[in-house]
Amino acid sequence: MRKLILGLLSVLMVLSSAAFAAVNPEGARSEVLRVVNDFKTKIVDQREELSVDPQKLRSTMQEIISPVVDFDDLAKKVMGKYYRRATAQQISDFVEVTEGTLLRTYSAAVIDFDPERLTVLPLARQKPGKEVRVDAKFQLSDGSPVDIAFYMEPKSDDDWVLSNVVINNINFGLTFRKQFGVMMQQNGNDIDQAIAAWQASLASSGEE
């Protein structure tokens, strides 16, 4: 279950910021539906070809998520207070490690992802603010449900990005930041060593 959820996260887990725009909140739901549909048509339906071509699989994944992923801002949010201490090279290393490891580690899990098990629900009443919450339910192979909340922010009139993902009440934005903070403490506040530990953590999560 953990590997399946993290595989989904590698596609839809985006921690990015965007300027507020007065746009139709239904656009947020449409963007989630677009990503799910793209995964069905471009990856799941092509799984036979992609399963023997890992490089093409990662390239296809990157093509799908690039409109909604901002790994530079992901670095800022996950690194938290340590971001201000990091050099430009360390930030670049963090971005490269995060993007590369997620794409490489979870590609296989994404091939087995079944879009038919994911139901994107109609928008519920929203709280005031720029974020729009898009709720979805995923059904595991044993029939048990997984509740997913995608928090979307408008980047422009037509573009949306995900600001956070909560799965079964686990806030992954907050969890990732806490994990990196622990890695900093365990590595004597050495950012380079913490980034290496972060890379190992992402990779090991995909093996569970």
Provide structural commentary.
The structure is a single chain. With 208 residues, the chain is α+β, with helices and mostly antiparallel strands. Helix content is 52%, strand content 15%. It is built from 8 helices and 5 strands, in the order ααααααβββββαα. The chain has helices at residues 2-12, 26-42, 47-50, 54-65, 71-79, 88-111, 172-186, 191-207, and strands at residues 118-120, 132-139, 145-154, 160-167, 170-171. Helix 6 (88-111) runs parallel beside helix 8 (191-207). The radius of gyration is 17 Å and the shape is globular.
Annotation, overall tally of beta strands: 5
What sort of overall outline do the alpha carbons produce when their principal axes are compared? globular
Number of helices: 8
Order of helices and strands: HHHHHHEEEEEHH
Taking Cα atoms only, what radius of gyration do you get, to the nearest Å? 17 Å
Based on helices, strands and strand pairing, what is the structural class? alpha+beta
Poorly predicted regions:
13-22
What's the arrangement of strands in the largest beta sheet? 1-2-3-4-5
Biggest sheet details: 5 strands, antiparallel
Question: Helix fraction?
Answer: 40-55%
Sheet-strand content, in percent, reads 5-15%
Distance between the termini: 9 Å
Overall mean pLDDT: 82
